[in-house]
Amino acid sequence: MNLLVVVVVLVLTGWVRMGYEHALSEELERERVLTPAFDMESRAGLSQKGFIATFGSLRPTLAALTVLSSSKHHTNQDWTALEGAIETSVMLDPYNPYYWDLGAWHMAYNAAGSYQKNEEYAPLRRQRLFKESIYTGDSLLERGIHANPEDLGLRLQRARLWSSVHRIQDFPRVVEILQRALTELELSDQQRLMLQSDLFYTLMRMPEKVQEAYALGRWLYESAPSTRVPSLVNGLCALQMHPKVKVDEPIGMAQLYGNKANAIRLVSNYLRDEDPVKPRYGMQALLDRLRAEPPSK
After folding, report:
1. What pLDDT is stored for residue 58 in this prediction?
2. Exposed end of the chain (fewer CB within 10 Å): N or C?
3. CA-to-CA distance for 90 and 9, rounded, in angstroms?
4. Sign of the alpha-carbon torsion through 17, 18, 24, 28
């Protein structure tokens, strides 16, 4: 009977202690004192690579060595092996944004571009692998953001990926990424203006968002003189002439561009850009009119 009591006490004590230690481990992981524990699948993957699944403080060093050794996969364009090396690195050191960023760059740009140009594959297979690599890169960035929610760089890289004319443009996704960054992160004034400017350039490329784009661009122009770069000035000018944008008091050409010569130069550059989704309403007519005007005395 006494033995039974002792066994019951030990079991109950172990159960209580296990719950406490589990809660403590979760708290330490949240505070980044401990790196996340490997699940069984991760342990099996590491075992297959000849590693031990409990590295402790050696994980960041092993992650760095794995990334360094993966350069040969890039050289050989062995994208499957490179993806495996990146997955190992981010598993070992998930709190280092560099590995997530590097892996996303390799997959979404290098691997995707390589597949797209590989004439050994049929066109449909090339396109499928191109898209799959882009989504793999995006997944790395998304998971990296989850592991490093305060890192602005990963969010910016993800926004740039989906706004690239050379990849798969998805402007609604870019808007969501930028708005979440503006809402969720503690930003400096300069960082906030940068994100708001990027949001303006994205919205102006969405036909259904041109009024919202104009409101934001007008606010940036009037509230933050540092944002009055040629891309903002030209964007505002084009939006003011857009038939679907309501403008109560348009900004005059003299205020926007300063003088005729500058207006001709900046508008010419804007029209020379081959970006097919930028609003161009009235810009060519404006340039023709400026060129036709007699020089001022």
Report:
1. 81
2. C
3. 42
4. positive
Is residue 153 a contact partner of residue 141, using CB atoms and an 8 Å limit? Answer: no
How far is it, in rounded angstroms, from Cα 293 to Cα 260? 9
pLDDT band (50, 70, 90) for residue 164: very high
Sign of the torsion angle spanned by Cα atoms 16, 21, 26, 30: positive
Q: In this structure, are residues 181 and 152 in contact, taking their beta carbons and an 8 Å threshold?
A: yes
Q: Give the per-residue pLDDT at 40.
A: 43
The CATH class given to the 47-168 domain equals mainly alpha
Domains of the chain by residue range: 47-168
SS (H, E, C) 31-100: CCCCCCCCCHHHHHHHHHCCCCCCCHHHHHHHHHHHHHHCHHHHHHCCHHHHHHHHHHHHHHCCCCHHHH
- Sequence-distant (6+) residues with CB within 8 A of 213 are 200, 203, 204, 206, 235, 239
Which among 198, 161, 193, 164 has a CA at the least distance from the CA of 178?
Answer: 198
φ/ψ of 277, rounded to 5, equals -105, 0
pTM value surpassing 0.90: no
**Residue 17 predicted with pLDDT over 70:** no
- Give the residue from 243, 248, 164, 173 showing the smallest Cα distance to 210: 243
